[in-house]
Each structure stands twice: as structure tokens, then as C-alpha cells.
Amino acid sequence: MRETTLPAAGQPRTPYRRRLLGRCLPSLLGAALVLALLGPFGTFVDLTLTQRLAYWISLIGLGGLAFELLTLAATRLLRERPEAWRSMLVGVTLAVASLMTLTVALLEKTLRGLDFLRPLGLAELFVYVVLVTLLVSAIPVWLELRDRGLLAGPAALPSPPLPDNAPAPPAEPAFLARLPARLGRDLLALEMEDHYVRVHTEAGSDLILMRLRDAIAELAGLDGMQVHRSHWVAAAAVAGVERKPDGKLVLVLRNGRRVPVSRSYLTEVRAAARAAGWAEKTGS
């Protein structure tokens, strides 16, 4: 398996294909279907349902494609300036709205004989297109910003001051800040998966774009160990040890997940098992 470098700030945690097929396309298709059924801007009266479906799916699809391509180009240019995402979104939205205004004007003239190819007509149409663009892109953009960690969470209440002689509380491992909020902080294991690290917690799993060894380095201070070139486990997550007939060890986590132990880590794992008192049994 190959490993990649750590993602820069503002880079997505979820693979592009999953974001595109699982979030963006369903949102755009849903918006097109709703607009086809409602038939705004006179399309309900002038067009049949089949025509409205073709009309809105084509426009939303073209607008979505333009938005995606311009966003990809802009994020490449602003790779080192993730804080500029607001200006980037405004610029992309206005660019897409301008392109789609001209497209809709030509389509309306051809399809329904409506002439918007005048300054006032284009200005009026531009307002409508901007509104539709904002409504259609709201959910996909929000999901994308959340995936990139660009949406600030609620402000935490200030902690009470510590006495002067009190020891400072231990710092949370830096890696935990990368976890999506829905996964919580009860880390069970890490698993290298192609270009990503799959994170397992009590609440589920997700992919993070980084190398396993970098993730382990960011977990300094958390009790755990690497047990395989592709696996790391938290000590508190291990419920027992299972020995296979061929002598290989498998760690059984408290959520039932089984993690293989490679030969190169066998001595360290056995020592940790004795120290922690992990129950050992023979597996099939």
C-alpha cells in the first residue's frame, strides 16, 4: 500500500468520489426534481412535466458542473490560503451565475420565445439565477466546508483558572482534533487503507487523508501501540488476545473488531498483553 503526505489545512477528509457521488449529485438531482415539480418562473404553465424535468435537470447539471470545476480550480490556487474560502465562494458563485444567466437567456429565447437579451432583462434574470444557485448549492457547499474543517464549531466556555501550583492538564493528542464530531473522541484503532487512514471509534469509522506513521506521531501521549504495518490500537480498546492455530495473534477489541498482529510486533504485543492482563484464548 502507498502512503501520502499529510493534507494541508482546509483539505477534505473524505475521498473525492465519495463526496461527489454521495453528497453533491444527490443534492443537485433532488433540487432539479423539486424545481421541475414546482415549475417556478412560468415553467409550470408553459412546459409539460417531461419538458420541465429536462429543462431543470439540464440547467442544474450544467450549473453544478461549472460550480465544481471553478471550485476545484480556485481551491488549487488557494491551497496555501484556506482562510480565503469565503471570498473564493463568492467569486465562484458570481461567475457561475453570470455564465448561467447567459445560458438561460439563450434557452428561454429558443424554447419559449422570451427575450432576456437586453441589459434590464439580463439584470432581472441574473437575480433569479443567483437565488436558484444559492438555494441549490447551499447543502453541498455546507457539507463540503464541514468536511474540510472550515466551519468553526460553537465557542467553548472558558475553563476556570488553575491554582498557581497546580500541574497543567495533559494536552489532547493533536490527531483527535482531526476526527469528525460525529465519531467522538473514544478512539479504538487506526487502519491504513490505500492513501488514507481509517479511524475506528465507538461511534463508527471514517477516512482521513494522511500517512499512518504521521497519525501515530500525532497520538503521542495516548496509550496505544502499532501492532502491524497497517494497524494501530488503543490499549483501552483491547478486550482480549486470540491465538490462531498457526500461532499468529489477533487482538479482539471491545467492539468485536479483530486486528492482526504481525510477526515484527509480536514481542511488544505479548509484553503489553502480560502487563495489561489481556485474556488470551485459542481461535479457529
Question: What do these coordinates show?
Answer:
- The chain is of the alpha+beta class and 284 residues long.
- The chain folds into 2 domains: 16-147, no CATH class; 180-282, Beta Barrel (OB fold (Dihydrolipoamide Acetyltransferase, E2P)), CATH 2.40.50.1020.
- Helices cover 46% and strands 16% of the residues.
- The chain has 7 helices and 9 strands, in the order αααααβββαβββββαβ.
- The protein has helices at residues 16-38, 43-46, 49-77, 85-111, 119-147, 212-218, 266-276, and strands spanning 187-193, 196-201, 204-208, 224-228, 231-234, 238-243, 249-253, 258-260, 279-282.
- The strands form 2 sheets. Strands 3-2-1-5-4 form a 5-stranded antiparallel beta sheet. The protein has a 4-stranded mixed beta sheet with strand order 8-7-6-9, with no helix packed on it.
- A hairpin with a 2-residue loop joins strand 1 and strand 2.
- Helix 1 (16-38) packs antiparallel against helix 3 (49-77) and helix 4 crosses helix 5 (119-147).
- The chain is elongated, with a radius of gyration of 26 Å.
- The two termini are 28 Å apart.
- Residues 1-9 and 153-157 have low confidence and may be disordered.
Q: In brief, what are we looking at here?
A:
This protein has 284 residues and is an alpha+beta fold. Helix content is 46%, strand content 16%. The strands form two sheets. A five-stranded antiparallel beta sheet has the order 3-2-1-5-4. The protein has a four-stranded mixed beta sheet with strand order 8-7-6-9, with no helix packed on it.
Widest sheet: strand ordering: 3-2-1-5-4
Give the tally of structural domains.
2
Please estimate the helix content. Answer: 40-55%
Largest sheet: 5 strands, antiparallel
Q: How large a portion of the residues is in β-strands, by DSSP E?
A: 15-25%
Task: Tell me the span between the first and last alpha carbons.
Answer: 28 Å
Oligomerization status of the protein chains: single chain
Topology pattern, helix = H, strand = E: HHHHHEEEHEEEEEHE
Which radius of gyration do the C-alpha atoms yield?
A: 26 Å
Instruction: Based on Cα principal axes, name the global outline.
Output: elongated
Overall pLDDT: 82
Strand segment tally:
9
Structural class: alpha+beta
Count of alpha/pi helices: 7
The low-pLDDT segments are 1-9, 153-157
